Amino acid sequence: MAMPNAPTPPLARPARKLGTDAGHHFFGYYNKSSWDRGDRYLLAQRTPYKDVRLTPEAEAEIGCFDLQGGQAFQRLNTTRAWNWQMGSQLQWLDGLPGRQLIHNIRTPGQGRPYVNFGSAIVDAASGAVRTLPAPVYVVAPSSQWALCVDYRRLYVTHETIGYSEPGGRFELPLAPDSDGIWRMELASGALRLLVSYAQLKAFHHRASMDQAIHWVSHIEVNPASSRVLLLHRWTERVQDETCFLHRLITMDPDGGDMRLLECSDHPLPQLAGDFDPAAVGTFDYEKSEWQISHPLWRNDHQIIVWGPHAGAIHYHLYDDAPHGQVRVVGEGVLTENGHMSFSPANPRWLLSDTYPDAGTHERILFLYDMDTGQRHDLGSFYADPTLSKENRCDLHPRWSRDGRQICIDSVHQGERQMYLIDVADTVG
Predict the structure, then answer these.
(1) Could you tell me if residue 7 is inside a domain?
(2) Is residue 8 part of a domain?
(3) Distance of CA 280 to CAs 82, 287, 307, 308, Å?
Protein backbone atom coordinates (compact mmCIF):
# COMPACT_ATOMS: atom_id res chain seq x y z
CA MET A 1 0.00 0.00 0.00
CA ALA A 2 1.31 3.44 -0.92
CA MET A 3 2.17 5.74 1.98
CA PRO A 4 0.27 9.02 2.41
CA ASN A 5 1.88 11.84 0.44
CA ALA A 6 3.66 9.34 -1.81
CA PRO A 7 5.08 10.96 -4.96
CA THR A 8 2.81 11.11 -7.95
CA PRO A 9 4.08 9.50 -11.18
CA PRO A 10 5.41 11.89 -13.85
CA LEU A 11 2.63 14.06 -15.26
CA ALA A 12 1.64 14.32 -18.89
CA ARG A 13 1.41 18.09 -18.21
CA PRO A 14 3.37 20.11 -15.64
CA ALA A 15 1.21 21.17 -12.68
CA ARG A 16 2.30 24.53 -11.23
CA LYS A 17 1.45 25.17 -7.58
CA LEU A 18 -0.16 28.50 -6.68
CA GLY A 19 0.73 30.49 -3.60
CA THR A 20 3.89 31.71 -1.93
CA ASP A 21 2.78 31.54 1.73
CA ALA A 22 2.66 28.70 4.22
CA GLY A 23 -1.13 28.23 4.21
CA HIS A 24 -3.29 25.64 2.50
CA HIS A 25 -5.38 26.87 -0.45
CA PHE A 26 -8.40 25.45 -2.24
CA PHE A 27 -11.37 26.64 -4.28
CA GLY A 28 -13.94 23.88 -3.94
CA TYR A 29 -16.38 22.68 -6.54
CA TYR A 30 -15.96 22.02 -10.25
CA ASN A 31 -19.08 23.86 -11.44
CA LYS A 32 -17.75 27.39 -11.79
CA SER A 33 -14.55 29.11 -12.88
CA SER A 34 -12.23 30.41 -10.20
CA TRP A 35 -10.80 32.91 -12.75
CA ASP A 36 -12.24 36.40 -13.13
CA ARG A 37 -13.46 37.67 -16.54
CA GLY A 38 -9.95 38.75 -17.54
CA ASP A 39 -8.24 35.50 -16.44
CA ARG A 40 -5.97 37.48 -14.11
CA TYR A 41 -7.41 36.95 -10.62
CA LEU A 42 -8.07 33.48 -9.23
CA LEU A 43 -10.41 33.02 -6.25
CA ALA A 44 -9.39 30.79 -3.34
CA GLN A 45 -9.94 30.00 0.31
CA ARG A 46 -6.93 29.79 2.64
CA THR A 47 -6.75 27.79 5.86
CA PRO A 48 -3.94 27.01 8.32
CA TYR A 49 -4.80 23.30 8.18
CA LYS A 50 -5.09 20.59 5.55
CA ASP A 51 -7.82 18.32 6.88
CA VAL A 52 -9.26 19.38 10.25
CA ARG A 53 -12.72 18.12 11.22
CA LEU A 54 -14.90 21.19 10.76
CA THR A 55 -16.76 22.90 13.59
CA PRO A 56 -18.76 26.17 13.56
CA GLU A 57 -15.64 27.95 14.86
CA ALA A 58 -13.39 26.88 11.97
CA GLU A 59 -12.47 29.90 9.88
CA ALA A 60 -11.26 30.21 6.29
CA GLU A 61 -9.88 33.31 4.63
CA ILE A 62 -11.46 34.49 1.37
CA GLY A 63 -9.17 35.94 -1.25
CA CYS A 64 -7.56 35.67 -4.65
CA PHE A 65 -4.26 35.21 -6.43
CA ASP A 66 -3.05 37.91 -8.83
CA LEU A 67 -1.55 35.81 -11.63
CA GLN A 68 0.26 38.87 -12.95
CA GLY A 69 1.39 40.21 -9.59
CA GLY A 70 3.65 37.64 -7.99
CA GLN A 71 0.84 35.19 -7.17
CA ALA A 72 0.66 36.22 -3.52
CA PHE A 73 -2.67 35.49 -1.84
CA GLN A 74 -4.71 38.67 -1.36
CA ARG A 75 -7.02 38.39 1.67
CA LEU A 76 -10.47 39.94 1.10
CA ASN A 77 -12.70 38.54 3.88
CA THR A 78 -13.20 35.58 6.23
CA THR A 79 -15.95 33.01 6.69
CA ARG A 80 -17.04 30.24 9.06
CA ALA A 81 -19.65 28.90 6.62
CA TRP A 82 -17.77 26.41 4.46
CA ASN A 83 -16.87 22.77 3.86
CA TRP A 84 -13.97 21.02 2.19
CA GLN A 85 -15.96 19.99 -0.91
CA MET A 86 -17.65 23.24 -1.93
CA GLY A 87 -15.78 25.78 0.14
CA SER A 88 -18.03 28.75 0.92
CA GLN A 89 -19.71 28.69 -2.54
CA LEU A 90 -17.19 31.36 -3.50
CA GLN A 91 -17.85 32.75 -7.01
CA TRP A 92 -17.42 35.82 -9.17
CA LEU A 93 -20.45 37.95 -10.00
CA ASP A 94 -19.83 38.32 -13.71
CA GLY A 95 -22.99 40.32 -14.36
CA LEU A 96 -21.99 43.12 -11.99
CA PRO A 97 -19.42 45.84 -12.74
CA GLY A 98 -15.82 45.59 -11.55
CA ARG A 99 -14.53 42.59 -9.61
CA GLN A 100 -17.30 41.56 -7.24
CA LEU A 101 -17.60 38.15 -5.62
CA ILE A 102 -20.00 36.38 -3.28
CA HIS A 103 -19.52 33.76 -0.56
CA ASN A 104 -21.45 32.34 2.38
CA ILE A 105 -21.06 33.48 5.98
CA ARG A 106 -22.40 32.69 9.44
CA THR A 107 -24.75 35.32 10.89
CA PRO A 108 -25.44 34.19 14.47
CA GLY A 109 -29.03 34.83 15.48
CA GLN A 110 -29.88 36.40 12.14
CA GLY A 111 -30.91 35.34 8.67
CA ARG A 112 -34.13 34.13 7.13
CA PRO A 113 -35.29 31.59 6.28
CA TYR A 114 -32.09 30.03 7.61
CA VAL A 115 -31.12 31.37 11.02
CA ASN A 116 -27.35 31.72 11.48
CA PHE A 117 -26.40 31.74 7.77
CA GLY A 118 -26.25 34.41 5.07
CA SER A 119 -23.94 35.53 2.27
CA ALA A 120 -21.64 38.46 1.57
CA ILE A 121 -20.88 40.37 -1.62
CA VAL A 122 -17.33 41.72 -1.62
CA ASP A 123 -15.87 44.35 -3.95
CA ALA A 124 -12.33 43.10 -4.53
CA ALA A 125 -11.06 46.56 -5.49
CA SER A 126 -12.55 48.67 -2.69
CA GLY A 127 -13.00 46.02 -0.01
CA ALA A 128 -16.64 47.03 0.53
CA VAL A 129 -18.84 44.23 1.90
CA ARG A 130 -22.63 43.90 1.68
CA THR A 131 -24.49 41.10 3.46
CA LEU A 132 -27.57 39.21 2.28
CA PRO A 133 -30.07 37.24 4.38
CA ALA A 134 -29.57 33.74 2.95
CA PRO A 135 -26.62 31.51 1.97
CA VAL A 136 -26.33 30.95 -1.77
CA TYR A 137 -26.00 27.61 -3.53
CA VAL A 138 -25.60 28.99 -7.05
CA VAL A 139 -25.83 32.45 -8.59
CA ALA A 140 -27.44 32.93 -12.01
CA PRO A 141 -24.94 33.95 -14.73
CA SER A 142 -26.84 37.25 -14.97
CA SER A 143 -25.84 37.94 -11.33
CA GLN A 144 -29.37 39.19 -10.69
CA TRP A 145 -30.52 36.35 -8.43
CA ALA A 146 -29.32 33.27 -6.58
CA LEU A 147 -30.85 29.97 -5.50
CA CYS A 148 -30.55 29.07 -1.83
CA VAL A 149 -30.94 25.96 0.34
CA ASP A 150 -30.62 25.15 4.03
CA TYR A 151 -27.05 24.00 4.73
CA ARG A 152 -28.27 22.75 8.11
CA ARG A 153 -30.43 20.24 6.23
CA LEU A 154 -27.46 19.26 4.10
CA TYR A 155 -25.40 18.77 7.25
CA VAL A 156 -27.97 16.19 8.40
CA THR A 157 -28.58 14.46 5.06
CA HIS A 158 -25.22 14.77 3.27
CA GLU A 159 -22.67 16.10 5.76
CA THR A 160 -19.91 16.41 3.15
CA ILE A 161 -21.69 19.39 1.55
CA GLY A 162 -23.36 20.85 4.66
CA TYR A 163 -22.16 23.36 7.25
CA SER A 164 -21.28 22.02 10.69
CA GLU A 165 -23.62 22.55 13.62
CA PRO A 166 -22.93 22.48 17.38
CA GLY A 167 -23.66 19.05 18.79
CA GLY A 168 -23.77 17.22 15.46
CA ARG A 169 -26.84 15.98 13.58
CA PHE A 170 -30.38 16.76 14.76
CA GLU A 171 -33.96 15.91 13.80
CA LEU A 172 -35.59 17.59 10.78
CA PRO A 173 -39.01 17.25 9.14
CA LEU A 174 -38.81 14.77 6.26
CA ALA A 175 -40.47 16.76 3.46
CA PRO A 176 -41.78 20.11 4.76
CA ASP A 177 -43.90 22.49 2.71
CA SER A 178 -42.13 25.47 4.32
CA ASP A 179 -38.63 24.74 3.00
CA GLY A 180 -36.99 23.79 -0.28
CA ILE A 181 -35.29 25.90 -2.95
CA TRP A 182 -35.47 29.65 -2.37
CA ARG A 183 -34.78 32.42 -4.86
CA MET A 184 -32.98 35.53 -3.56
CA GLU A 185 -32.68 38.79 -5.49
CA LEU A 186 -29.10 40.03 -5.06
CA ALA A 187 -29.98 43.72 -5.31
CA SER A 188 -32.57 43.69 -2.52
CA GLY A 189 -32.14 40.41 -0.66
CA ALA A 190 -35.83 39.62 -1.26
CA LEU A 191 -36.60 35.91 -0.83
CA ARG A 192 -39.36 33.61 -2.08
CA LEU A 193 -39.82 29.86 -1.95
CA LEU A 194 -39.79 28.41 -5.48
CA VAL A 195 -40.44 24.75 -4.77
CA SER A 196 -40.88 22.99 -1.43
CA TYR A 197 -39.78 19.52 -0.39
CA ALA A 198 -43.45 18.57 -0.11
CA GLN A 199 -43.95 19.59 -3.74
CA LEU A 200 -40.89 17.63 -4.85
CA LYS A 201 -42.16 14.56 -3.00
CA ALA A 202 -45.55 14.88 -4.73
CA PHE A 203 -44.01 15.39 -8.19
CA HIS A 204 -44.03 11.95 -9.89
CA HIS A 205 -44.27 10.43 -6.42
CA ARG A 206 -42.47 7.16 -5.60
CA ALA A 207 -43.35 4.88 -2.69
CA SER A 208 -39.71 4.94 -1.51
CA MET A 209 -40.18 8.63 -0.64
CA ASP A 210 -42.79 8.10 2.06
CA GLN A 211 -40.50 7.36 5.03
CA ALA A 212 -37.45 9.18 3.66
CA ILE A 213 -35.91 12.55 4.35
CA HIS A 214 -35.62 14.80 1.26
CA TRP A 215 -33.10 17.38 0.07
CA VAL A 216 -31.68 18.92 -3.11
CA SER A 217 -28.13 19.40 -4.34
CA HIS A 218 -26.20 20.17 -7.54
CA ILE A 219 -28.45 23.10 -8.46
CA GLU A 220 -27.21 24.74 -11.67
CA VAL A 221 -28.49 27.60 -13.84
CA ASN A 222 -28.04 27.53 -17.62
CA PRO A 223 -25.95 30.25 -19.36
CA ALA A 224 -29.03 32.28 -20.33
CA SER A 225 -30.33 32.19 -16.72
CA SER A 226 -33.58 30.77 -18.18
CA ARG A 227 -33.59 27.18 -16.81
CA VAL A 228 -32.48 25.45 -13.63
CA LEU A 229 -31.39 21.85 -13.04
CA LEU A 230 -31.24 20.08 -9.69
CA LEU A 231 -30.81 16.68 -8.10
CA HIS A 232 -33.69 15.69 -5.82
CA ARG A 233 -32.43 13.12 -3.32
CA TRP A 234 -34.10 11.11 -0.57
CA THR A 235 -33.14 8.32 1.81
CA GLU A 236 -34.15 6.43 4.94
CA ARG A 237 -30.49 5.97 5.96
CA VAL A 238 -28.43 9.17 5.80
CA GLN A 239 -25.37 7.40 7.25
CA ASP A 240 -24.92 5.29 4.10
CA GLU A 241 -24.72 7.18 0.82
CA THR A 242 -25.29 4.00 -1.21
CA CYS A 243 -28.88 4.25 0.10
CA PHE A 244 -29.42 7.65 -1.52
CA LEU A 245 -32.05 7.74 -4.27
CA HIS A 246 -31.84 10.33 -7.03
CA ARG A 247 -33.79 12.26 -9.64
CA LEU A 248 -32.60 14.77 -12.24
CA ILE A 249 -35.15 17.58 -12.58
CA THR A 250 -35.27 20.90 -14.45
CA MET A 251 -37.53 23.91 -14.00
CA ASP A 252 -37.94 27.57 -14.85
CA PRO A 253 -36.32 30.19 -12.59
CA ASP A 254 -39.75 30.86 -11.05
CA GLY A 255 -40.27 27.17 -10.21
CA GLY A 256 -42.62 26.48 -13.12
CA ASP A 257 -42.50 23.98 -16.01
CA MET A 258 -40.87 21.26 -13.91
CA ARG A 259 -39.56 18.28 -15.91
CA LEU A 260 -38.36 14.89 -14.71
CA LEU A 261 -35.40 13.84 -16.88
CA GLU A 262 -34.22 10.78 -14.94
CA CYS A 263 -35.07 8.73 -11.83
CA SER A 264 -32.86 6.01 -10.34
CA ASP A 265 -35.26 4.69 -7.71
CA HIS A 266 -34.34 1.05 -7.01
CA PRO A 267 -34.57 -1.61 -4.26
CA LEU A 268 -32.23 -1.04 -1.31
CA PRO A 269 -31.00 -4.23 0.40
CA GLN A 270 -28.83 -1.93 2.54
CA LEU A 271 -31.98 -1.07 4.55
CA ALA A 272 -32.00 -4.55 6.06
CA GLY A 273 -31.53 -4.49 9.81
CA ASP A 274 -28.26 -6.46 9.74
CA PHE A 275 -26.52 -4.20 7.20
CA ASP A 276 -23.36 -2.44 8.46
CA PRO A 277 -22.97 1.11 7.04
CA ALA A 278 -19.40 1.17 8.40
CA ALA A 279 -18.49 -1.45 5.81
CA VAL A 280 -19.06 1.04 2.98
CA GLY A 281 -15.84 2.51 1.55
CA THR A 282 -15.23 6.23 1.13
CA PHE A 283 -15.78 6.15 -2.62
CA ASP A 284 -18.24 3.26 -2.94
CA TYR A 285 -21.11 5.73 -3.24
CA GLU A 286 -19.44 7.67 -6.04
CA LYS A 287 -18.92 4.41 -7.95
CA SER A 288 -22.46 3.07 -7.49
CA GLU A 289 -24.24 1.90 -10.63
CA TRP A 290 -27.33 3.84 -9.50
CA GLN A 291 -25.67 7.17 -8.84
CA ILE A 292 -26.93 10.30 -10.61
CA SER A 293 -24.06 12.70 -10.15
CA HIS A 294 -22.44 15.98 -11.11
CA PRO A 295 -24.91 17.36 -13.69
CA LEU A 296 -23.91 20.52 -15.55
CA TRP A 297 -25.27 22.52 -18.47
CA ARG A 298 -23.37 22.18 -21.76
CA ASN A 299 -25.42 25.03 -23.21
CA ASP A 300 -28.92 26.43 -22.64
CA HIS A 301 -30.62 23.17 -23.67
CA GLN A 302 -28.30 20.22 -22.92
CA ILE A 303 -27.10 18.67 -19.66
CA ILE A 304 -24.12 16.37 -19.11
CA VAL A 305 -24.39 13.96 -16.16
CA TRP A 306 -23.03 10.69 -14.84
CA GLY A 307 -25.93 8.34 -14.24
CA PRO A 308 -28.04 5.35 -15.29
CA HIS A 309 -30.39 5.45 -18.27
CA ALA A 310 -32.10 2.56 -20.06
CA GLY A 311 -30.39 0.05 -17.78
CA ALA A 312 -26.79 1.24 -18.16
CA ILE A 313 -24.68 3.87 -16.41
CA HIS A 314 -22.56 6.24 -18.50
CA TYR A 315 -21.78 9.87 -19.07
CA HIS A 316 -25.10 10.93 -20.63
CA LEU A 317 -26.11 14.06 -22.53
CA TYR A 318 -29.77 15.00 -21.94
CA ASP A 319 -31.92 17.34 -23.98
CA ASP A 320 -33.91 19.51 -21.58
CA ALA A 321 -37.25 18.93 -23.26
CA PRO A 322 -40.31 16.71 -22.72
CA HIS A 323 -39.33 13.28 -24.08
CA GLY A 324 -35.95 14.75 -25.04
CA GLN A 325 -33.15 12.67 -26.48
CA VAL A 326 -30.56 11.04 -24.20
CA ARG A 327 -27.18 10.17 -25.68
CA VAL A 328 -24.24 8.21 -24.29
CA VAL A 329 -20.98 10.19 -24.23
CA GLY A 330 -17.68 8.33 -24.50
CA GLU A 331 -18.98 4.76 -24.41
CA GLY A 332 -16.10 2.44 -23.53
CA VAL A 333 -13.82 5.43 -22.89
CA LEU A 334 -15.51 7.39 -20.07
CA THR A 335 -16.30 4.50 -17.76
CA GLU A 336 -16.52 5.99 -14.26
CA ASN A 337 -17.92 8.94 -12.36
CA GLY A 338 -16.13 12.29 -12.46
CA HIS A 339 -16.46 16.07 -12.16
CA MET A 340 -17.18 17.13 -15.73
CA SER A 341 -17.49 20.50 -17.45
CA PHE A 342 -17.21 21.91 -20.96
CA SER A 343 -14.70 24.51 -22.08
CA PRO A 344 -16.27 27.99 -22.00
CA ALA A 345 -14.35 28.74 -25.20
CA ASN A 346 -15.25 25.59 -27.15
CA PRO A 347 -17.81 22.96 -25.97
CA ARG A 348 -16.01 20.39 -28.09
CA TRP A 349 -13.74 19.85 -25.06
CA LEU A 350 -15.00 18.03 -21.96
CA LEU A 351 -12.84 18.22 -18.84
CA SER A 352 -13.19 15.59 -16.10
CA ASP A 353 -11.41 13.34 -13.63
CA THR A 354 -11.77 10.00 -11.86
CA TYR A 355 -12.10 9.03 -8.22
CA PRO A 356 -9.09 7.37 -6.57
CA ASP A 357 -8.12 3.86 -7.64
CA ALA A 358 -8.72 1.47 -4.73
CA GLY A 359 -5.17 0.09 -4.94
CA THR A 360 -2.95 2.97 -6.01
CA HIS A 361 -5.09 5.89 -4.71
CA GLU A 362 -4.35 7.75 -7.94
CA ARG A 363 -6.87 9.99 -9.74
CA ILE A 364 -6.65 10.69 -13.46
CA LEU A 365 -7.28 14.16 -14.89
CA PHE A 366 -8.26 14.17 -18.56
CA LEU A 367 -9.79 15.95 -21.54
CA TYR A 368 -12.30 14.28 -23.84
CA ASP A 369 -12.80 15.39 -27.44
CA MET A 370 -16.53 15.34 -28.21
CA ASP A 371 -15.78 15.44 -31.96
CA THR A 372 -13.34 12.53 -32.20
CA GLY A 373 -14.13 10.50 -29.08
CA GLN A 374 -10.47 10.64 -28.02
CA ARG A 375 -9.45 10.93 -24.37
CA HIS A 376 -6.30 12.88 -23.47
CA ASP A 377 -4.96 12.04 -20.00
CA LEU A 378 -3.31 15.09 -18.44
CA GLY A 379 -1.89 13.58 -15.27
CA SER A 380 -2.24 11.26 -12.31
CA PHE A 381 -2.55 12.66 -8.77
CA TYR A 382 -2.22 10.80 -5.48
CA ALA A 383 -5.14 11.02 -3.02
CA ASP A 384 -4.29 10.61 0.65
CA PRO A 385 -6.35 7.55 1.75
CA THR A 386 -6.32 8.72 5.39
CA LEU A 387 -8.71 11.56 4.54
CA SER A 388 -12.39 10.85 5.21
CA LYS A 389 -15.24 11.53 2.78
CA GLU A 390 -15.98 14.79 4.65
CA ASN A 391 -12.44 16.21 4.47
CA ARG A 392 -11.16 14.57 1.29
CA CYS A 393 -9.72 16.63 -1.54
CA ASP A 394 -11.20 15.87 -4.97
CA LEU A 395 -9.48 17.42 -7.99
CA HIS A 396 -12.62 19.35 -9.01
CA PRO A 397 -11.02 20.61 -12.27
CA ARG A 398 -12.05 24.08 -13.47
CA TRP A 399 -11.48 25.92 -16.76
CA SER A 400 -9.98 29.35 -17.26
CA ARG A 401 -12.30 31.69 -19.15
CA ASP A 402 -10.28 31.39 -22.36
CA GLY A 403 -10.25 27.59 -22.13
CA ARG A 404 -6.45 27.39 -22.21
CA GLN A 405 -5.73 26.51 -18.57
CA ILE A 406 -7.12 24.24 -15.86
CA CYS A 407 -7.04 24.70 -12.10
CA ILE A 408 -7.33 21.78 -9.66
CA ASP A 409 -7.30 21.27 -5.89
CA SER A 410 -4.96 18.48 -4.80
CA VAL A 411 -3.08 16.95 -1.86
CA HIS A 412 -0.59 14.93 -3.91
CA GLN A 413 2.38 16.84 -2.45
CA GLY A 414 1.24 16.55 1.16
CA GLU A 415 -0.57 19.92 1.31
CA ARG A 416 -4.00 21.04 0.16
CA GLN A 417 -3.10 23.36 -2.68
CA MET A 418 -4.26 24.69 -6.06
CA TYR A 419 -2.39 23.85 -9.27
CA LEU A 420 -2.47 25.29 -12.78
CA ILE A 421 -2.11 23.12 -15.90
CA ASP A 422 -1.71 24.54 -19.40
CA VAL A 423 -3.73 22.72 -22.08
CA ALA A 424 -3.46 25.24 -24.93
CA ASP A 425 -1.47 22.86 -27.11
CA THR A 426 -4.23 20.24 -26.86
CA VAL A 427 -7.34 22.41 -27.25
CA GLY A 428 -5.80 24.66 -29.90
Answers:
(1) no
(2) no
(3) 25, 11, 20, 21
